[in-house]
Design goal:
Blueprint lengths: L2 H39 L2 H10 L11 H19 L2 H6 L5 H34 L2 H30 L3 H16 L14 H8 L2 H4 L1 H9 L3
Helix pairs in contact: 1-3, 1-5, 3-5, 3-6, 5-6, 6-7
Length: 222
């Protein structure tokens, strides 16, 4: 994996990454004012009661933010590779195909992770502004699977794009939607705290799974 490959991939997606970053930051600015509103219009005890005793997910609007980010960055990175046959040419260069694809994944995933880290910091900071540390930690543990879904979305979208067969694309999409749906099933506080690690280990299977459609794409197999 050469630095030129990393640089090429970064140049290709840099504006999309920047746009996604700006959008995510602006979203958290909106979230700040959205959470702040009840404290201005009503007695603060009502907002506290809703969050602490009723367990209202007052930050639920952030659910699909990084999921959408992962999909957008993956589309921006691999749609040009497929539509302009760049990937087919790259895979026939005298370099190892697995290392080449890993370099692509490293660039895209790094961008999603970087935005995700910023999201987590902003999310925790905003919650801490209005609620005690215990509520902020609970909110972070509750939202962590939502943020993590962005990484899966990136890998799954890449797999669907590269796949040469529409039947398999539909099959992969169903598997992806079903698996990612597990991260959004519960609206209870910290409901995934005991299974997040297991979901993470299962999610690692998305990395080697990418190489099957890559092989099929390189060899023109339907």
């Amino acid at each position: 994996m050469s630095t030129s490959t990393f640089y090429k991939e970064w140049l290709k997606i840099r504006y999309y990454v920047l746009g996604a970053f700006v959008f995510n930051v602006l979203f958290f600015v909106y979230l700040f004012f959205d959470i702040r509103e009840p404290f201005i219009n009503d007695p603060p005890i009502m907002a506290w009661n809703s969050a602490i005793h009723i367990h209202t997910l007052f930050y639920a609007k952030v659910k699909y933010l990084l999921l959408a980010t992962g999909i957008v960055i993956s589309l921006a990175q691999f749609i040009p590779e497929i539509t302009k046959n760049r990937l087919r040419l790259s895979l026939h260069l005298p370099v190892r195909a697995d290392l080449l694809i890993l370099s692509y994944i490293c660039v895209g995933l790094s961008a999603v992770i970087a935005i995700g880290v910023v999201d987590i910091i902003l999310f925790y900071t905003i919650i801490t502004k209005f609620f005690p540390h215990e509520v902020s930690c609970s909110a972070l543990l509750t939202a962590l699977p939502w943020f993590f879904s962005g990484l899966i979305a990136y890998l799954a979208t890449m797999q669907v794009i590269i796949e040469t067969s529409w039947k398999r694309r539909i099959f992969y999409s169903i598997i992806f939607c079903g698996f990612v749906g597990l991260f959004f099933m519960s609206n209870e506080y910290s409901s995934y705290i005991h299974v997040t690690g297991k979901l993470f280990l299962i999610s690692l299977l998305f990395v080697p799974a990418v190489f099957l459609p890559v092989y099929r794409f390189r060899n023109g197999v339907e």
